[in-house]
Amino acid sequence: METKKSKENNTKEGNISLRGRTFEGVVISDKMHKTVTVEWERRRNVKKYERYEKRRTKVKAHNPDTINAKEGDKVIIKETRPLSKTKHFVVVEIKKENKDEAN
Q: What is the pLDDT of residue 10?
């Protein structure tokens, strides 16, 4: 028997339950306290011109101390309950770190 607590995905902070969609993007700003802005690009078909256009999506995500994503990092974020007026995502893992820090 599985309890609700064991179903929660541990975001290394513990008590934030994750649900919904998962996205992969790049951190474009980390100036807020425990919050990052993540952006990703998608392609959308324009039927009239039979071409594709690029669209960008920018969202704010909770950045736990244990993950601590920096600007330029490629991250995976997951949807969660509203954490503030504009914050509905949590950084789950850093996929690729910023190249400037590696050198």
A: 54
Q: What is the pTM of this model?
A: 0.79
Residue 4 has pLDDT above 60, yes or no: no
One-letter amino acid at 73 equals D
Give the three-class secondary structure for 99: helix
Amino acid at 66: T
User: Residue 79 carries which side chain, given as an amino acid letter?
Assistant: E
E strand or H helix at 96, and its extent?
A: strand 87-96
All domains of the chain in start order, with CATH: 18-94 (2.40.50.1000)
Q: Positive or negative, the Cα torsion across 10, 8, 95, 69?
A: negative
